[in-house]
Amino acid sequence: MKLNGSQIFIECLKREGVDVIFGLPGGVVLKIFDELHQQSDIELVLTRHEQGAGHMAEGYAKATGRPGVALVTSGPGMTNIVTPLADAYMDSVPIVVFTGQVPTQMIGNDAFQEADNLGISRPCTKHNFLVRDVKDLARTIREAFHVATTGRPGPVLVDIPKDVSINTTEFVYPDTISLRGYHPEHGNDTTQITRAAEAICQAQRPIIYVGGGAVFSDAADEVTALAELTRIPVDMTLMGLGVFPGTHPLSLGMLGMHGSYVANMAIHNADLVIAIGSRFDDRVTGKTSEFCPRAKIIHIDIDPTSIRKVRDIEVHIPILGDVKEVLTELIQALKVGINGNTNDLREPWWTQLREWMDTHPLTYSQSDDEAIKPQYVIDRLYQLTTDSDPIVSTDVGQHQMWSAQYFKLNHPRRWLTSGGLGTMGFGFPAAMGAQRAFPDRLVLCVTGDGSFQMNLQELATAVLYKLSVKIVIINNGYHGMVRQWQDLFYDGRYASSELSTLPDYVKLAEAYSAVGLRASSPQDVDAVIQEALSTDGPVLIDVQVSRSENCYPMIPAGGANHEMLLEDPPHLTQASKSPVRTSDDSDSVLIA
Amino acid sequence: MGVENVEREHIISMRVENRSGVLARVAGLFSGRGYNIESLTVAPTLDATLSVMTIVTKGDERIIEQILKQLNKLIEAIEVVDLTESAFIERDIAIVKVQTTLETRAEVLRIAEIFRARVIDSTNTMYTLEVTGTGGKIEAMIFQLHTLGILELVRAGRIAVAREPYEKKTAE
Predict the structure, then answer these.
(1) Strands A317-320 and B150-155: what pairing?
(2) Omega before A538 cis (within 30°)?
(3) Would you say A101 and A160 are in contact if contact means Cβ atoms under 8 Å apart?
(4) A52-91 core/surface letters (b: 16 or more CB in 10 A; e: else)
């Protein structure tokens, strides 16, 4: 049967299992929108900005594990979705973005709303395609979904010129994919796995350092099995939160720049680091030349370029492969190899870990007569919602780090955050994408007064499609993390970090026909959270928090993982607090 | 440290899909990640669907390892080989316009003969020479002609091939 390009597009997406597209129309994609309008298998969620569409596709993908899809027009439509593409590329999120393009015979003529979509997106996609002939459309879409979802997942862009969406051809959905240069599967390296098992059995101070790769590989059960079998403590990266239960006794929480004291001290003092689907990001390693100086490193990753990428960090046992498959084999090898002595061998390590936990737990203070502490809000939000097993989305900044610290998530795909690119404006649309995938689940968006303003237009979309995200704005009137760095490293000069004209967020929510609530004192917090939870539809809570609170622990840029600041240094506190030096080495100096 | 940090020249030979945009992908990878390109050539092969790219680059062991891995990761890259790892043959080609006077014309021809360069154009004040050979040979000829006055120099960039016969890898 002959179909036009737009009908082929729809048929292909149905076969890929797509039930929703996030998008915004424009001149060259009108035919596709027109065909979408005439069918009901795939819902089109009309966003207010293409960036919103891209992040919604990301949120959908992160929460479900299935590819998220966005459809935008050429030119500005495409350039507006570059940020989500770059975000998805950094955080390995499988999204397929379809962009309209001017008709093939006009490409290169600076036509109206023309942009070099391939050229612009090349460095921020896993792969991209321009479809020049409607005969190639079905095969290209098949390949795009294949590339996005296999190996290390990532964003793929498909550029469809207007004439390709209109021209007709015989529709054939290809049975097989042949990309002769793409081989995402790797056989497991049994020799290396055996070496890893031996190293694990001998280690006295081992640590698991698990990241987002374990989430994408659906390896949560295997990570837990490995940790429990060997009684090895688990550090999680920002992207890995939830892949190991946050409330598990073996969990040390998040590591890195704002990680827990015990997580950072553990990796710094370990003799064996088992890195699983993590990429030694600079926010995790701190100063690379002093990263776990006494440890042998095992690195399990599906992406060869991630292994041995970071100069100064030697990987002793690299294992290339899918995390789930490698761990399954590793656990088998360990079950044979473990002789039962490891518990005794590691008792001193656990004694030390418990001491670190007890001496420096995550902490804050909140009394009734002072301003609301941001940590208190997030802690209460966690306590009041944890039984519902919520999906938690965040934006970027202080609120993100506090959320990472205080939300103890026990399952993967509950945590949506922009890690690699650090995209302010990600949180709200990502939460909406997750809510669209799971209409009956509780989806929270913890955001800041700065971040929320970067995509607040999507309130209209949330109201229209009844995406009942509960938004909590940690409102301190600043770009808080910027202000924190200025406090610590720029003598308190607040260059462009104060947001002196903030909207009235309650009225803003109401302007979009959403519900707005406000908390101004600690006594209000529980009540507004409860009210939001019992209200249908999107709710925005404006929490007016203490303006000067800073996020600790913090490893100053350039510092090593054991060189944490645990509280405001004396020049920031009127009280006689002294800076807490956490280093064991008397000769190490805080780089600040 | 030590040996690992020594910068060396590497010649990478890649078989890629013969499609528009592939060169931009490779070039973008080098510029985006701050790798060096000394020369890059690309041309079709016997198989019309393939092109071969020869890339001359420089870096220490760590960087070359990353370059090879990153190139391999490109979906349109079918095979990536570091020729420097084994025996290989390389050739470059240069076209050199040399200024001449009555006194230097014979000397230019003598140098051309030494390097087995051919004269491909001649005027009263200039010879245009064509020379092929390894990068080193061409550098040596340029060095000798330099004092006589090179007006213009164009090089093709190096191409290279492994001495072992190429065995087509069967796709997985």
Answers:
(1) unpaired
(2) no
(3) yes
(4) bbbbbbbbbbbbbbbbbbbbbbbbebbbbbbbbbbbbbbb
Q: Which residue of A has its CA nearest to B60?
A: A311
Burial call A488-523: b when 16+ CB within 10 Å, e when fewer: beeeeeeeebbbeebeebbebbeebebbbbbbeebe
Listed as ranges, residues in chain A with pLDDT below 50 are 574-592
Residues of B in contact with A119 (CB under 8 A): 24
Question: A225 is written with which tokens?
Answer: 């099995």
Sign of the C-alpha dihedral computed for residues A137, A142, A146 and A148 taken in this order:
positive
Instruction: Say which of B24, B62, B66 has its CB closest to residue A122.
Output: B24
Chain B residues in contact with A303 by the CB 8 A cut-off are 73
Q: Are A519 and A543 in contact (CB under 8 A)?
A: yes
Sequence letter at residue A406: Y
The shortest CB-CB distance from B171 to any of A123, A180, A304 is to A180
The CA radius of gyration of chain A, in Å to the nearest whole number, is 25
Nearest CA-CA distance, residue A301 and chain B, Å: 14
Nearest CB to A309 within list B16, B66, B78: B66
Q: How far, in Å, CA of A111 to CA of A102, rounded?
A: 7
CB atoms within 10 A of CB A283: 17
Domains in chain A: ranges and CATH: 2-170 (3.40.50.970), 190-359 (3.40.50.1220), 374-544 (3.40.50.970)
Query: What is residue A575's predicted lDDT score, i.e. its pLDDT?
Result: 41
CATH number of B89-159, picked from 1.20.1730.10, 3.30.70.1150, 3.90.1150.10, 3.10.180.10:
3.30.70.1150
Distance from CA of A554 to the nearest CA of B (A): 29
C-alpha B68 chain-centroid distance: 17
Question: Are A180 and B32 a contacting pair at CB < 8 A?
Answer: no
Q: How many residues comprise chain B?
A: 172
Cα dihedral sign for A299, A301, B15, B22? negative
User: How many CB atoms neighbour CB B24 within 10 A?
Assistant: 13
| DSSP letter for each residue of A52-108 | HHHHHHHHHHHHHSSPEEEEE-STHHHHHTHHHHHHHHHTT--EEEEEEE--GGGTT
Please state, in angstroms and rounded to a whole number, the distance separating the CA atoms of residues A319 and A300: 5
Which ipTM was obtained for this model? 0.92
In CATH terms, are B2-85 and B89-159 the same topology?
yes
Phi, psi of B103 (to 5 degrees): -75, -35
Catalytic residues of A: 50, 112-113, 162, 481
The set of residues, in sequence order, having a beta carbon less than 8 Å from that of B11 and lying 6+ positions away, is B54, B55, B56, B82, B83, B84, B88, B90, B158, B160
Alpha helices per DSSP H over A256-373: 261-269, 282-285, 323-337, 342-345, 347-359
Indicate yes or no: CB of A303 within 8 angstroms of CB of B73.
yes
Gap between the Cα atoms of B119 and B112, Å rounded = 8
Tens of pLDDT along A71-101? 999 999 999 999 999 999 999 999 999 999 9
B172 touches chain A (CB under 8 A): yes
Q: Is B144 on the interface with A (CB under 8 A)?
A: no
Chain A to chain B Cβ contacts (< 8 Å): 40
Architecture in CATH for domain B2-85: 2-Layer Sandwich (3.30)
Question: Would you kindly state where each structural domain of chain B is located, as residue ranges?
Answer: 2-85, 89-159
Check A119 against B78: CB less than 8 A apart: no
pLDDT tens digits, B39-69: 999 999 999 999 999 999 999 999 999 999 9
Give the separation between CA A174 and CA B126, rounded to whole angstroms: 61
Q: Would you state the pLDDT for residue A429? A: 98
Residue partners of B85: CB distance under 8 A and separation at least 6: none
The Cβ of residue A570 has, within 10 Å, a number of other Cβ atoms equal to 12
